[in-house]
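In the previous lecture we treated proteins in isolation. Real proteins rarely work alone, and many bind small molecules. This record shows how such a complex is specified: first the sequence, then the SMILES for zinc ion.
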Amino acid sequence: MAVQAKRTSPAATSSYAPRSRRSRHLAFFSGLPHYVDSGDCTWVCEFCGAYFWYVERVLKFSTPAHPRYSHCCQDGGVVLPYPSAFAPQFVALYQNLNFMKDIMAYNSMFSMSSFGANVDEVVNHDRGPYVFKISGQISHRIGSLSPDPIKGPRFLQLYLFDLEHEVQNRLRAIDGPRKRDLDSDIVQFLVTFLGANNEYVRTFKTAKLMADESNLDFYAVRLFNNVADCRYGLPSPGSLGCIVSGDDTTCTTYDIVVFSHSGRPQRISKLHPSYMPLQYPLLFPYGEEGWSPRLKMGNRRGVTVNMYYAYYIHARQHIWSPILNSSRLFQQYLVDAYTCIEESRLDYITKHQSNLRCDYVSGVGF
Ligand SMILES: [Zn+2]
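The predicted 3D structure, ligand included, written as tokens:
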């Protein structure tokens, strides 16, 4: 008859607890989880050049000598662009330890939209690596173009008003204990770099100039992305446009319309291509477009939100990505991206209620 050893409680074994230092060490290490060495992340997708561990291969289509991977690009179906080359000074910032330590504060300083979430900081009170954790939903909101006379310019307004004191205004807009560590030289560099290269900054500045020349006191700016349905080239200047009109503009919840004077910040749809670039200018420094329903694969099927984010969070040969090198900001971006994926799933369920024959999704999304 087989006899199974019974696990006893610590109290029951207290009289047999190891006494010597060697025994205590052995007891400590025997309680740790068992680790398996999976080798190095040196295997490469044959289609897009993404790096993988060997164990991540698709078993069905792999041989021992020829592993296949598909999570990155769906067997070459998804091809998305990267900027042709990042400016060396911008890349050098990501090797600057002072910048990396406060990269979330620097990004917040240059965001054109505000980040709304219930961030749980308690998880970081103990020792260990930084963890970005939220509860509830994430929202990005964009305010008016004109600053509040009492609070002064914030977010997008910092790009347009009181430009002589832009660095001081940006430093003043940041709250928190990290504020004293922020470097005004880095802020000055980013002001110059984004002002010269970011499509959103250029577009909003042009819109304000047009409104000023036309002596418009009350106006609205509607953003639109000027890209073709099937995009396999690199992002180019002029891919973003705007329409300046009176403030009687009607808009849907999907559109981004920024009013010159508005009491309430407008919530941006997670499925809008400008959702991420407006919030993360340090990850999209040239104003590259985010996910759009118009993105197509090689077989003309649409690129899903999941495919889009999976493509860009893979490291690739000979490609430098600010997203993958942004440390703590990368964690925030990942959490944000996951909520976008979830929202797109809910959106799909909402629109296809009549086609779905599952009781558990009935009424979801309303
Ligand atoms: Zn691939």
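Summary for your notes: Confidence is low (pLDDT under 50) at residues 1-15, 229-235. The beta strands are 43-44, 51-52, 114-119, 134-142, 219-225, 240-246, 257-259, 266-267.
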